[in-house]
Amino acid sequence: MSTHNDSRHGHGPRHGSAPAPAHAHKHAHAHHRTDIDWEVMATQLETGGDVQLPALRLAAARLKELLGPDHRVRRILDVGSGPGVMTCVLAETFAGAEAVAVDGAPGLLDRALARAGRLGLGDRVAVRHAELPEGLAGTGAGTGDGEGDGEGGEGGVGTADLVWSSKAVHHLGDQQGALKALAGALRPGGLLAVAEGGLPMRFLPRDIGIGRPGLQARLDVALETWFEEMRAELPGSTAVVEDWPELLRRAGLTGARTFTSLLDLPAPLGGPARSYLHAQLTRVREAASDALAEEDLRTLDVLLDPGAPEGILRRPDAFLLAGVTVYTAVRPAH
């Protein structure tokens, strides 16, 4: 799991935490349209995280502000880290802290270590392999070298002053239970930050000159259908009102807050953002095709055609506007 780049729920890549999904990696679902293999999506996840870096850096800066200058952050957990894009952003933002990428996909953790090495953060970024949420309770096995992490050696991930989780909780059947597990990984006075929900991503005008106007609104509906099916197939799936501040309070935390970091990339887009959107639309075409009319499927095929001037890789009016919404709360000091 990781930083998705979902439109709203994270039905797609996770960022490095948009309309594709992310985080409890390979579920043996009977319906292949809701089965996600995150390791196969590794490149897409990391590319999506790179595209979202401006919003992720804003989010990390806001977390530092919420913790305040007097709160010493020594250890950070990025739970459902994927390829470690946000893990590295947090390591850069909180100088001197150890940032630990926690995920259930070993291949993505390898990417996190490689990314940290390229950025000169290899001495402060570690990884832990853990299936969620069980791994937070001490069943995860370490995959790093085990040296210098201070906590969470063999058998767990340990505790931290800051726990970040992006687009991961909604891929777990019991969302309230997952939040309790995340809260349990906090040290007294520590901050939990959960990125969920947010604004649906927008990247095309209402009328794009092909097909029926309003395509993006219909894609939203199709993705909501996919998301409902995905949630229903998760082990232990439990319906809950997704009032995230209230869910954090029920997890035993206090001082719930909400903020949104905006990603605003105007037209014309550069190559990486266009490639990211192409990957997102490909996933939509695969995952939500049953919920779309034939006309909209034909429009998607044109948008995905790398040689078409109306395609997402070439059209001059493509943009990228999305909001990363983060819910935070604190573990009481006593």
Structure characterization notes:
The chain is α/β, with parallel strands linked by helices and 334 residues long. The protein has one domain: Rossmann fold (3-Layer(aba) Sandwich), CATH 3.40.50. Helices cover 33% and strands 19% of the residues. The protein has 9 helices and 10 strands. An 8-stranded mixed beta sheet has the order 6-5-4-3-7-8-10-9. It has a two-stranded antiparallel ribbon with strand order 1-2. The radius of gyration is 19 Å and the shape is globular.
Task: Sum up the structure in keywords.
334 residues, alpha/beta, Rossmann fold, 8-stranded mixed β-sheet, two-stranded antiparallel ribbon, 33% helix, 19% strand, disordered N terminus
